[in-house]
Structures are given as C-alpha cells and as structure tokens.
Amino acid sequence: LTISNTVEMPHATLGVGMVIAQSVPEGAEVRAGSGVELKVSKGADTIPVPSVTGKSLSKAKEQLIQAGLVAGQVRYGSNDDRSPGVVLDQKPAANSAVPKGTAIDLVVNSD
C-alpha cells in the first residue's frame, strides 16, 4: 500500500501524528500499490483562556462556560485593594491555549 493522502484533524485524546482512521479497513484485500488515505491527529483543538480576574465569581464562571471551559477549584485569598467576591487569580493564566472543557482554577477575594 501507499499513502495517497493524509488529512490532519483534531482529536481530544490521540497525540499529534497518531492515526485516527484509514480509508481501507484493517484486513481488507487490496491490489499491491493501492493508495490509502490516513486521517491523522493534530492533537486537541485549543481555545484561549479568557481573563476573569477582577470579575465576580458568578460572572467569571459564566464567561468560562461561554468560552467552552469550566470553573475548577475555587479557593479564597485576601487582597484589601479588591472588592470581596472578585477573582484575584486564575490558573491557567489568561490567553493560555487549552483544550475545550478544561477546568480553570480560581482564587477569589474573601475580604
């Protein structure tokens, strides 16, 4: 067999370069030299993490959901310069590229 075409596509669990599918089923009889098309993983599609620092916890969660992400662990910290209930920090940081559905951990002001 020869590879007649390679199509890269996102895949949530298969790493870059792994074969997702092929046009000729496994075990099929084909003529020598026949072409096969491969669908190859280019890894997970990623999206940018929005900045939710300075927003209320409820607004931050809402924005994460709209972006295709979810709120992860919520911890509380203290900052006298910020209003109570606002997000002080987030991990991963804003503008990081992450797979859709990633949990974003938040630190919320308790003061």
Explain how this protein is built.
The protein has 111 residues and is mainly beta. The chain has a 3-stranded mixed sheet with strand order 1-3-2, with no helix packed on it. 10% of the residues are buried. The model has no long low-confidence stretch (mean pLDDT 93).
Structure summary:
This protein has one helix at 57-66, and strands spanning 2-9, 19-22, 35-41, 46-48, 70-77, 87-91, 97-99, 103-109. It is mainly beta and 111 residues long.
Please name the defining characteristics of this protein:
single chain, 111 residues, mainly beta, 8 strands
Percent in helix: under 10%
By DSSP, the count of extended strands is 8
Q: Bin the strand percentage.
A: 35-45%
Uncertain segments are none
- Radius of gyration computed on alpha carbons: 22 Å
Average predicted confidence as pLDDT: 93
What is the end-to-end distance? 67 Å
What general form does the structure show? Answer: rod-shaped
Largest sheet: 3 strands, mixed
What structural class should be given to the helix and strand makeup?
Answer: mainly beta
Strand-helix topology:
Elements (H helix, E strand, L loop, with lengths): L1 E8 L9 E4 L12 E7 L4 E3 L8 H10 L3 E8 L9 E5 L5 E3 L3 E7 L2
